[in-house]
Design brief:
Layout (H helix, E strand, L loop, with lengths): L13 E3 L16 E4 L6 E4 L2 E3 L8 H8 L4 E4 L16 E5 L3 H13 L4 E5 L6 H13 L4 E7 L2 H10 L3 E4 L9 H4 L6 H14 L3 E5 L5 H9 L4 E4 L13 E4 L2 E7 L4 H8 L12 E5 L4 H19 L13 E3 L11
Parallel strand pairs: 4-5, 4-11, 5-6, 6-7, 7-8, 8-9, 9-10, 10-11
Antiparallel strand pairs: 1-15, 2-3, 12-13, 13-14
Bound molecules: guanosine-5'-monophosphate (5GP).
Length: 338
């Protein structure tokens, strides 16, 4: 047994300190970023926010609504192959797991439309079989941008980039409907994970996507401040018309269901039930119905522009460089408690 006594932090443990700024208005802030990749060809320009590959979040209607704003969607794994003809290549990740069936599905999708962005998503990115799979997909799709995860430590971030990932997805346990920290006792405070993994990735000219744990636009700003190149959100994009889930009415209030990809609900829907040896590591919640996702996108982008203005970053690119986090006492600042 070893005990690491370094303090690790979540988004709610910090605030961004304001800095002197020459910006006159939030309107001046440019939220688009242009990225090169360590393996894939070409560059990408857009607003580096991604809807998480979850049911009720990463639908085709979400993809269309977000792409209008130059945001991305990592489509969930359960769409039919024929539907992929409709993807918007520059703003869509095709998500797969690491089974043979996943690999075959990707081959079939490629015949319809070659995916520019591939997301290889597993709950635990620390297995040897995962690294091998990333290598294999890199070989088969040398030009595609590969995002792979999830991990939370620098050494595994480096290993995945060396194996062929362009973007490493960071986050174990912080998700809105994730119960891994409770069920397995495993996880890593997300702000520290993003700081440490982005540092490791940038050393190899790789990128990271901070996945999970953003509850507010301020958390998204903190993720970029910590060094994230992309930020992925599930809960913040759930509860909208684009979820393609029915609106449920209870006591006159409208809700939309939201559940974790490893919840009992998801396993029943997609895998014919939960395998006996597995515990469910996700839960179901009801989110207040929020209408069109465009309203939420405007809120998030407005929050990011505000954060950039407060620290004097004219572009999102400059936010991390201009960020100083201050640690806060969560007991004394209940308004930012999660
Ligand atoms: P959120 O933005 O809602 O805080 O987090 C979204 C992320 O939570 C997803 O991208 C995914 O990484 C993670 N996630 C989604 N469903 C589950 C689940 O059932 N269990 C766990 N452990 N993580 C989940």
């Amino acid at each position: 047994m070893r005990l690491d006594t370094d303090l690790k932090l979540d988004y709610a443990d910090v605030l961004i300190r304001p800095k002197r700024s020459t910006l006159k208005s939030r309107k001046e802030v440019d939220l688009k970023r242009k990225y090169k990749f360590p393996h894939a060809k070409g560059t990408w320009t857009g607003v580096p926010l991604i809807a998480a590959n979850m049911d009720g979040v990463a639908t085709f209607s979400m993809m269309k609504a977000l792409a209008k704003n130059k945001l991305m969607t990592a489509l969930h794994k359960y769409h039919e192959v024929k539907d992929y003809k409709n993807i918007i290549p520059d703003f869509t990740f095709v998500t797969i797991g690491i089974t043979e069936a996943d690999e075959k599905k990707l081959e079939k999708i490629s015949k319809i439309k070659k995916p520019r962005f591939i997301c290889i998503d597993v709950a635990n990115g620390y297995t040897e079989s995962f690294v091998k799979f990333v290598k294999k997909i890199r070989k088969k799709y040398p030009d595609s941008v590969i995002m792979a995860g999830n991990v939370v430590t620098g050494e595994m971030t480096e290993e995945l980039i060396l194996a062929g990932a362009d973007i490493v997805k960071v986050g174990i346990g912080p998700g809105t409907v994730c119960t891994t920290r409770i069920v397995a006792g495993v996880g890593y405070p997300q702000l520290s994970a993003v700081i440490e993994c982005s540092d490791a990735a940038h050393g190899l000219k790789g990128l990271v996507c901070a996945d999970g744990g953003c509850r507010t636009p301020g958390d998204v700003a903190k993720a970029f401040g910590a060094g994230a190149d992309f930020v992925m959100m599930g809960g913040m994009f759930a509860g909208h018309d684009e979820s393609e889930f029915p609106v449920i009415e209870e006591d006159g209030i409208k809700y939309i269901e939201h559940y974790g990809s490893s919840s009992r609900e998801a396993m029943e829907k997609h895998n014919g039930g939960k395998a006996k040896y597995k515990a469910s590591e996700g839960k179901r919640i009801l989110i207040k119905y929020r209408g069109k996702v465009q309203n939420t996108v405007d809120e998030i982008l407005g929050g990011l522009r505000s954060a950039c203005t407060y620290v004097g970053a004219i572009r999102l690119k400059g936010l991390a460089r201009r960020t100083t986090f201050i640690m806060v006492n969560r007991q004394l600042s209940p308004e930012i408690r999660d």
